[in-house]
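PROTEIN DESIGN WORKSHEET
SECTION A - STRUCTURE
LENGTH: 306
TOKENS:
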């Protein structure tokens, strides 16, 4: 039995197999419509989520399975003091596979150590978000045709952004990857990510404050929101929240084939006028998220569809 806690739990070959399966699901959805009949997915979400929870549920329903779970810590026995380890032991009696989001780093890891079913980390604090990373990789590969030889700008909250951290971990294993880290000083990528991941893998990167400086050289611009829930005081959040706003005028600086990705939700960091730009790929990204989670569920449940 396997769990998914981090993108590094999968080899590059296993990642490619999941992406290939997701592409086949996109092309032949009818082939997979009954693959998980009789199987149940539990979604254990201790903090709010729209896309991640609903895309896991849509993925299981598209495979012919069923779903159960909760959407906040207030609506489960955690509000009574039940531990994560006890919750997963109980859920293992009800479901065949589980997706867990938790505000505390490492909570899904605790769960997988006490679980008798596969556990998917659907985001833990500012740590990892591996299914979003699979979504990002599928989007990039499907629209760019490759996962190597890319210059990627990561913009916004690089300090707390678990989607950014997970994506870096995954992409450093491909050749010819360069990063441009676009953030204010207060939200820079943590030192351990720069030293233990980028520098350790000899991945070129530079840090800039101005988005306009980076745009002309990028293949991918990965925007993130400044996350209010990660700040300890309101004043710092208010000061940072509108630091970057991508609009049509800034898009004029970018290459004609640059893609704009965003894990969503967005607040103010991408103007609505950018949505009609053909380079805006963040809503396509949402659809790819369903395909890749379908592929992941099949892989972890070891269901082979012929």
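SECTION B - SEQUENCE
RESIDUE ASSIGNMENT:
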């Amino acid at each position: 039995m396997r769990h998914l806690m981090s993108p590094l739990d999968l080899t590059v070959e296993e990642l490619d197999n999941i992406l290939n399966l997701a592409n086949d699901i996109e092309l032949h959805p009818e082939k997979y419509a009954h693959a998980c009949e009789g199987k149940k997915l539990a979604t254990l979400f201790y903090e709010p989520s729209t896309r991640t929870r609903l895309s896991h549920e849509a993925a299981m329903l598209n495979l012919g399975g069923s779903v159960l779970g909760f959407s906040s810590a207030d609506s489960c026995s955690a509000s009574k003091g039940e531990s994560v380890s006890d919750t997963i032991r109980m859920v293992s009696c009800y479901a065949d596979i589980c997706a867990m989001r938790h505000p505390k780093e490492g909570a899904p890891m605790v769960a997988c150590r006490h679980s008798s079913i596969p556990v998917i980390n659907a985001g833990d604090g500012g740590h990892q978000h591996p299914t979003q990373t699979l979504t990002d990789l599928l989007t990039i590969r499907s629209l760019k045709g490759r996962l190597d030889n890319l210059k990627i700008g990561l913009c916004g909250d690089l300090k707390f952004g678990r989607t950014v951290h997970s994506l870096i971990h995954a992409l450093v294993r491909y050749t010819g990857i360069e990063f441009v880290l676009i953030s204010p000083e207060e939200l820079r990528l943590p030192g351990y990510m720069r030293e233990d991941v980028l520098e350790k893998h000899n991945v070129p990167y530079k840090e800039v404050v101005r988005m306009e400086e980076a745009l002309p050289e990028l293949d991918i611009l990965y925007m993130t929101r400044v996350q209010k829930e990660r700040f300890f005081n309101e004043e710092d959040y208010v000061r940072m929240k509108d630091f970057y706003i991508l609009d049509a005028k800034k898009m004029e600086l970018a290459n004609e084939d640059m893609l704009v990705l965003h894990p969503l939700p967005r607040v103010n960091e991408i103007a609505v006028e950018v949505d009609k730009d053909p380079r805006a790929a963040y809503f396509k990204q949402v659809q790819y998220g369903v395909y890749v989670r379908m592929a992941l569920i099949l892989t972890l449940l070891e269901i082979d569809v012929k």
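SECTION C - NOTES
Residues 47 and 72 are 5 Å apart (CA to CA).
The beta strands are 40-45, 66-70, 97-102, 119-124, 150-155, 177-182, 205-208, 220-223, 259-261.
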